[in-house]
Amino acid sequence: MATDTDVYWRKFSWKAKGRKLLMVCNYPASLKVDRLDLTTMLILNNAMDMGFGSVVIANLFTRPVKSPRDKVLEEAFSEDSMAELVAQSKTVDQVIIGIGSLINKSKTAKFRLDEYQQLMTKTKIDVKMLVSPETKKPNHPLALQRESWALV
Prior knowledge:
The protein is of the alpha/beta class. It is built from five helices and six strands; from the N terminus they run ββαβααβααββ. It has a six-stranded mixed sheet, sandwiched between helices. Helix 1 links the parallel strand 2 and strand 3. It starts with 8 loop residues before the first strand and ends with a strand.
C-alpha cells in the first residue's frame, strides 16, 4: 500500500497456499513501488529459501529517508502507519524484524520498534529478529547479503 508520500508495505506472492511472511524494515528506498531494490531482492530470495509462499515487506517508517537522524525520523511516518503495520502483521504466519542497528542509533526508531512489539505481544503471531549468525546482534538484510539468516 502506498500513497503519494508514503510506502506502508508491498506484497509479493508466488505460492498461493504457502506460508506468509511479513518482513519489517526501516523505511522505503524510494516511493517507486514498481522497482526492486537490493533489500527487496534479498528478502524475496531468503523468504523463498525459507519455504514461504508470499512476503509482505513493511516499513517502520513509511517515508524515504536520506539521513536517518532522530529529527528526520520524527517526521518520516504517517499517523496511521503503526495501525497499518499491525493490521498487516495479523495477516501472516510469521514476522521477521530486520532493521539492523538503527534502533541503537535513533531514539525515535527504538520508540517505534518498542511500540510495535508491545502491540504484537497481544497477538499469537511468531515474531523473530533477524540477527547476525556470528554476533547475534540485530541486522538488516543488506548486512547479511552473503550470509545465511539467523532468527531469534
